[in-house]
Design goal:
Layout: H1 2-23, H2 34-40, H3 44-73, H4 77-99, H5 103-127
Helix pairs in contact: 1-3, 1-4, 3-4, 3-5, 4-5
Length: 130
């Protein structure tokens, strides 16, 4: 099970990777008004890195919940680990495709990550007796 827990840690750290890239993308970053600074940027790379940051936060809670649900329900740990590693891989690719503005691939890997979360939750739901 520790692999899935490490995946939760990596997924929790990903938003900070993307926002670090956004903040280091141009001179004059203003920590007093970071959102105002981002809003004034005309670089798609900075805006996309910030969008990847926000999207990574949005994806984190359902992923962490799905891993814990699956574990609590007694789903096979190797299945949980496989889906958790796939989710992390999809989310790393999602950020890369966001930064490079490859929107079709970004959407495709987003869907892959979402499918991992759904699969983990469905496995948990099917394991719990009604």
């Amino acid at each position: 099970m520790s692999i899935a827990y490490w995946c939760i840690l990596v997924a929790a750290a990903l938003p900070y990777v993307w926002v670090s890239l956004a903040k280091s993308g141009a001179a004059g970053y203003n920590n007093k008004d970071p959102r105002g600074w981002i809003a004034k940027q005309d670089s798609y790379r900075i805006r996309n890195a910030n969008a990847a940051h926000l999207n990574a936060f949005e994806a984190f809670a359902p992923f962490a919940a799905s891993v814990l649900m699956a574990q609590f329900a007694g789903v096979d740990p190797s299945r949980i680990s496989m889906l958790a590693m796939a989710f992390v891989a999809f989310r790393i690719l999602h950020g890369i495709f966001y930064l490079t503005a490859i929107h079709r691939m970004r959407s495709l890997v987003w869907l892959g990550g979402f499918a991992c979360v759904v699969a983990l939750m469905a496995c948990a739901a099917l394991k719990i007796p009604t």
